[in-house]
Structure of PhoX family phosphatase:
Amino acid sequence: MSGHKGGKPSVPTTKNCDEGVSNRSGHRPFEEILKARISRRSVLTGGLALAATAFFGGVGAAQSFGLGGKPGGGGGGPLLGFTPVPVAGGGGIWPRISPEYQFQVLIPWGDPIVPGGPEFKWPPTSADQEQQIGIGHDGMTYFPIDRDDKDCDVEEDEDRDRFFPLSQGRPGRGNRLGMLAINLEFGINIHVFGKPMPESLEDVRVSQHAHGVAIVKIKKKNGAWQTVKSKNARRIHINTPMAFSGPAAGHPLLQTPNGNIPLGTANNCANGVTFWGTYLTCEENFNGYFGAANAWVPTPAQQRYGFSANGFDYGWHLFDRRFDLSDPDYTNEENRFGWVVEIDPMDATQKPVKRTALGRMKHEGATTVEGRGGRAVVYMGDDEAFDYIYKFVSDGNWKSMRALGKSPLDHGKLYVARFNEDGTGEWLELTIDNPALAAQFADQGEVLTFVRMAGDVLGATPMDRPEWITVGPNGDIFCTLTNNSSRATPNAPNPVAPNPDGHIIKITDGDKHVGLTFEWDIFLLAKDTRGTEHVFTDPDGVMADPDGRLFIQTDGGQPNGLNNQMVVADTRTGEIRRLFEGVAGDEVTGIAMTPDRRTMFVNIQHPGNGNPNVTNFPVNNPVPDGETVPRDATIVITRKDGGIIGS
Ligand code: FEO
Ligand code: CA
Ligand code: CA
């Protein structure tokens, strides 16, 4: 780690995640159904209402591909064997981890994606940044390479590299060599290039190339992880050619008057992984990168998606016309963002594909699970206050579809969730065959492009900012609802108003994930952890493991002076312990594991909010020097005794 010094991004700034409200539809207030539900919910009495679900069976998570392996012990005994990080001593400028654990920093912002590439200099050039890890480390997937753990030093023979589904768990394989696909969600201008606003197209390009996705090959050697050479390492950013697929591909709403080809992905938040070994990256707060250089009146759709004249103050539109909402040559450019994008991590020549059948929203993540009949099911949150939870179900068995040359992500049904007051719910299909939608939308392509508005029409349930979704070992679905300070009135699925601390909802989906109805319950209210040693708020990243642990990451001001953190819940007993605490001003997000679950990757995003007066992480200066720019980075977590993470 070199401690490059540069100018001082000394203006403390906040994260750009959109905490606004775009849903003004107000079509289905829950006030009337709330009272009955509240009266019966013990969770509101203040107890920590963790569902006492039996978590054995080990089938659901194995199918989810979110996390590999088989149940790893615990056998009904306590799942959390580690000493928790205490509240006392929190809020520092260096991470804290349980004493039975250790961590290593990997691929900080600005490291070359292959050894020998341009080293980090601050501020970076746009040309260098294209060959470096970008900023805003977020959702990620470790793709194990089917190679014996003892045989990882063969770096050049990449034609031997094969992905295998984590769930198939091949003992002793793929735990020390893999491709890491990682989202680079965002970095504010002052952090990335030292100015509050761009002063040239080059400034804009630096910012643009810092955003996107990185694919890097990593291996463990001599006890430490490092990047290695790979022809498949690549950077994908806002100027990378993209393909569109599915019902909205080629739609007039995705065409611009000047005919520019589709380029780029931005604000890549959480992620998913397909059964066939590709990476899903999810475009979240894309609205913030657009602005208006001249007079501009937003359309209803632009309003619903939160576009504004200044965006999030990136200023791209001042030098790159593509992002200028007032430029008539680029009408509809903004409709090309807000999609789930499929990337092949084992083939750098593949053009990333935007899968329009999954709808256009502020996608948090795309969590896959194999449903009844081998159908590909994708659960998705739309992260904005009062927005919705969605599910996609492929038309057929994913293997059969792929054998016919069809992508399971192009052909299927998209649903939005409505939660009833009695703990049941319905999946409402977003189809132009519904007369209520046909009355307002021209065709399925328009429904998908403006899917938030279609959800408004159908009466979906506005939620408290749906973030990550994970599937537990018995098939239960957990969705973090990070917070909603704008909620004035509680209702059954969002029972706290205002809700500054957030909660986690559990969904038991019908008919092995392909049904039209579901049951739900509040899994946890974060406010109930206040006053306890395991306090946390603002749940965001989340991952279930095959034993019944739930790893919960936070993004928001934490109580008791703590920094953002990662806690682990035993879903069988309700016990919670703090495994990791990040550094001042950061967010802890992104989570991936090796198939043997002995190595976990998480991220520290925007340490110090980019301010070197707060922290110099990952340079460990005990007192910040005010000059060494902090860098977002991946943290590799292992147990000192080599045990399963979380045990
Ligand atoms: Fe990028 Fe909703 O967090
Ligand atoms: Ca998030
Ligand atoms: Ca968040």
